[in-house]
């Protein structure tokens, strides 16, 4: 009887976790994906391909918003959408610094890259 109660409790706990969606949230949260967030960085296209290109205010605003979650920002910069758009991740990780964002995650590891 004791084993049955433990088993029922375990099954109930697993069901509760899956209903709560604990394991379904990705780097950018439950409601969006890195590929969807990458579309919001369209104003950063030239700055993500050329380190000498100026970074627009609209780009910096989006990077600041997405960069509040560094793991999301990294996932976005390394996403398939970013790759297809011609983003160079090594240059893209410099955008927060080029935007002079005070609270940027300096030293954060973004795949094989480190945010300056």
Automatic annotation (TrEMBL):
<feature type="domain" description="Bifunctional inhibitor/plant lipid transfer protein/seed storage helical">
    <location>
        <begin position="28"/>
        <end position="110"/>
    </location>
</feature>
<dbReference type="InterPro" id="IPR039265">
    <property type="entry name" value="DIR1-like"/>
</dbReference>
<feature type="signal peptide">
    <location>
        <begin position="1"/>
        <end position="24"/>
    </location>
</feature>
<keyword id="KW-0732">Signal</keyword>
<dbReference type="GO" id="GO:0009627">
    <property type="term" value="P:systemic acquired resistance"/>
</dbReference>
<dbReference type="GO" id="GO:0005504">
    <property type="term" value="F:fatty acid binding"/>
</dbReference>
<protein>
    <recommendedName>
        <fullName>Bifunctional inhibitor/plant lipid transfer protein/seed storage helical domain-containing protein</fullName>
    </recommendedName>
</protein>
<dbReference type="InterPro" id="IPR036312">
    <property type="entry name" value="Bifun_inhib/LTP/seed_sf"/>
</dbReference>
<dbReference type="InterPro" id="IPR016140">
    <property type="entry name" value="Bifunc_inhib/LTP/seed_store"/>
</dbReference>
<dbReference type="Pfam" id="PF00234">
    <property type="entry name" value="Tryp_alpha_amyl"/>
</dbReference>
């Amino acid at each position: 009887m004791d084993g049955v109660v433990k088993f029922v409790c375990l099954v109930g706990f697993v069901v509760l976790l899956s209903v709560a969606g604990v394991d379904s949230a990705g780097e950018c949260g439950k409601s969006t994906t890195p590929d969807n967030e990458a579309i919001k960085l369209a104003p950063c296209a030239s700055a993500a391909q050329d380190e000498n290109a100026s970074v627009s205010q609209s780009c910096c605003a989006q990077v600041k918003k997405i960069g509040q979650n560094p793991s999301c920002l990294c996932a976005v910069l390394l996403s398939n959408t970013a790759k297809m758009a011609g983003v160079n991740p090594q240059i893209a990780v410099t955008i927060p610094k080029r935007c002079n964002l005070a609270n940027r995650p300096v030293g954060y590891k973004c795949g094989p890259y480190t945010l300056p």
